[in-house]
Specification:
Helices cover about 40% and strands about 25% of the residues. The chain has a single domain, classed as Alpha/Beta hydrolase fold, catalytic domain (Rossmann fold, 3-Layer(aba) Sandwich), CATH 3.40.50. With about 250 residues, it is an alpha/beta fold. The chain is globular. Helix 10 links the parallel strand 9 and strand 10.
Length: about 250
């Protein structure tokens, strides 16, 4: 059990050997019940970052009232997209291993833990890229998205190298060419929030947010895109305000 703002919150820590990744992975569950939300850490982050940076505390009212249940997962960014010592094709392949971990290990865990077939995803910065990419690739598993201050094009991490695994994990590249009704109808039935501040260190995220907005609007996908003020920086202080706000409005 964890204590947040003087309240006792139900928490669970889980660790298991991941067949997809070949080593142990960890996650933490917060809350008794409610809408399950899988949250990804920022670049090179860990499953405990959402707690350490007070995102869980910021969402404590929603958690304690049983409106949401947060599942904070680990990343392997340093083995994939940010692994500058590896060839981009190997980095992309490692991300595909991570995708298998999320879709064949974490998603079934959440389904068993909550009794629900689908879940939302969320994240900040690179966590927003992961959450958006998993949502757009697998809308059968993920039917809600809250992406904050995200970069949605992999060029920042691997430059101009392209193969199928890179292309199909870079939302600003594959979404313009995606016309499959199976995906689009699921997007249209989902809750989608894309938000960004206009303060320090948000320039790239603003550019990508605008590009993603244009793509989704052109495809007739309802999306709530919100540009916060010039005092809203690319920082946990901002995200602690944004996440509970959008959750409260979207549930």
């Amino acid at each position: 059990m964890g204590t947040f703002r003087g309240l006792i919150m139900h928490t669970e820590h889980h660790r298991w050997f991941s067949p997809a990744l070949g080593h142990d992975m960890e996650l933490k569950v917060y809350g008794h019940y409610g809408q399950p939300i899988v949250v990804f850490p920022a670049q090179d982050g860990r499953y405990y970052d959402f707690e350490n940076f007070k995102m869980i505390e910021a969402c404590s009212e929603l958690l304690e009232s049983g409106r949401i249940k947060i599942i904070a997962v680990d990343s392997v960014d340093w083995q994939s997209w940010t692994n500058a010592g590896a060839h981009p094709s190997n980095r992309a392949q490692r991300h595909m291993d991570f995708e298998r971990y999320i879709t064949t290990e974490v998603a079934p865990f959440v389904q068993k833990n909550t009794g629900l077939e689908t879940m939302w995803v969320s994240g900040c910065s690179m966590g927003a890229l992961h959450s958006a990419n998993f949502f757009f690739r697998r809308p059968d598993l993920f039917n809600g998205l809250i992406a904050l201050s995200g970069l949605y094009d992999l060029r920042l991490f691997i430059g101009d190298y392209r193969d199928a695994n890179v292309y199909y994990n870079s939302p600003l590249e594959y979404l313009p060419n995606l016309n499959d009704p199976w995906h689009l109808e699921r997007y249209r039935r989902s809750k989608i929030v894309i938000a960004v501040g206009q303060g320090r260190w948000e320039e790239d995220a603003i550019r990508d947010t605008r590009a993603l907005e244009r793509i989704l609007v052109d495809k007739g996908v309802p999306v709530w895109v919100d540009y916060w003020g010039h005092d809203v920086d690319h920082d946990w202080v901002s995200w602690r305000k944004m996440l509970p706000y959008f959750l409260g409005k979207s549930l």
